[in-house]
Design brief:
The chain is built from 14 helices and 2 strands; from the N terminus they run αααααααααααααββα. The chain has 385 residues and is mainly alpha-helical. Strands 1-2 form a two-stranded antiparallel ribbon. Helix 6 crosses helix 9 and helix 10 packs parallel to helix 13. The N terminus is likely disordered.
Length: 385
């Protein structure tokens, strides 16, 4: 058992934990409030009040749209990051439960399936990382291609940075640090939930493989009874992992669902009606892809997880239960009854983490987009002589 545990002990969230470590989240979670971690996060959090003070203070509609979108993004990022900091202590327990489930992998089919799962999780993390790095680079350097002196993004400052080189360099450095930290916060906060839900779904599939193969090998009835009991224990571990994940991600995901529709609509509105320069189009397209990636994979793997738990109910009857003992059949019926209840995670105990929610978000974004378009048209008609 111990050798198997070591063989499959993989840190599936290594990149996300590394990002939280860079941002000081692990130090804050351990109660180290008087140090560099607190200073860094207070420094980055200053972006939010400065963005709020900048609302609708710019001359062009595109700058105002960018400012509103970034204000929504920054505020939600700070709130989500704070919620994760309060829950990071649960990561150790989650990793221990995952290690116990990994230690139960047996047979060529399960090992092959497990390897595929581990590789897929690594690829998924890299897709998120590459996307957010692209957003970071586009946000951080797009202002360099403008003819006039400008900033990475429109922001209010209590001094004149346009006519002072020292002030301009200080402002740009402040914004670049803010961009780096907030994009890194978004990467860790937004990539962890889809990875966690995919991992639960695949662990459920591995359990289905174990249950359905009982009685199909050379083992006697006593060994089959023991294996079924072990599978029931795996089911308990799986439910425990699901509950830990739910408590870890439910609050941040509710915030994400609330703000994402408005953010998509604002970005699309600016991209369609106001963006003219190529570098701005690249920035807005990349930003739109990034905020879409915040929600769609989460809803997709939430649906995948719910389907996996639904299939768990039928796995019991796929085993060779007819030729087993009465003890086995009694335990089998208990397991079958326990798997009848569906497992659908709710963000904030309100919104299901499901593809139906993503469809609702897209409809809301379109409605908001249409509302902004109609409002602008009415204002333009009123201003006509």
């Amino acid at each position: 058992m111990s050798s198997a545990t070591e063989k499959f002990r993989i840190d599936y969230y290594r990149i996300q934990i590394g990002a939280w470590r860079i941002l000081g989240a692990l130090d804050l979670s351990n109660g180290k409030y008087l140090g560099w971690a607190m200073f860094l996060n207070v420094f980055v959090s200053m972006l939010v009040p400065m963005l709020l003070l900048s609302l609708f203070r710019f001359e062009t509609p595109l700058e105002n749209i960018t400012n509103v979108s970034l204000t929504i993004t920054s505020l939600s990022t700070i709130l989500k990051f704070g919620m994760y900091v309060l829950k990071l202590y649960k990561l150790a327990e989650m990793k221990e439960v995952i290690a116990q489930l990994d230690s139960r992998v047996r047979g060529e089919e399960q090992i092959r399936y497990h390897r595929h799962m581990a590789k897929y999780l690594q690829r998924l993390s890299r897709v998120f990382l590459a996307t957010y790095l692209t957003v970071m680079v586009n946000t951080g350097i797009s202002f360099l291609f403008r003819s006039e002196r400008s900033l990475p993004f429109p922001l209010w400052f209590p001094f004149d940075w346009k006519h002072s080189t020292v002030a301009y360099v200080a402002v740009v450095l402040f914004q670049e640090v803010g961009i780096f930290c907030q994009v890194l916060q978004n990467f860790a906060d937004d990539s962890f939930p889809p990875l966690a839900l995919y991992l639960i779904a695949e662990q459920c599939q591995l359990l289905i493989l174990r249950i359905s193969s009982i009685g199909c090998g050379p083992d006697n009835q006593v060994a089959n009874e023991k294996e079924l009991v072990n599978c029931i224990q795996d089911q308990n571990r799986l439910y425990s992992l699901l509950e830990l994940t739910r408590s870890f991600i439910t609050g941040p995901m509710l915030i994400q669902f609330i703000v994402i529709a408005a953010n998509i609509a604002l970005t699309m509105f600016g991209l369609v009606f106001y963006v003219e320069r190529v570098q701005d189009r690249v920035y807005y397209a990349t930003f739109l892809w990034g905020i879409t990636l915040q929600t769609y994979p989460l809803c997709y793997y939430g649906t995948m997880m719910a389907d996996s738990f639904s299939n768990l109910h039928y796995a019991v009857f796929c085993s060779n239960w007819i030729e087993q003992s009465s003890i086995y059949r009694s335990n089998m019926l208990i397991l079958a009854e326990r798997t009848k209840r569906g497992q659908l995670l709710l963000a904030g105990d309100i919104l299901p983490i499901h593809l139906s929610t993503f469809a609702t978000i897209c409809k809301a974004a379109y409605s908001f987009f249409t509302l902004m378009h109609d409002s602008v048209e009415k204002i333009q008609n009123l201003n006509k002589p």
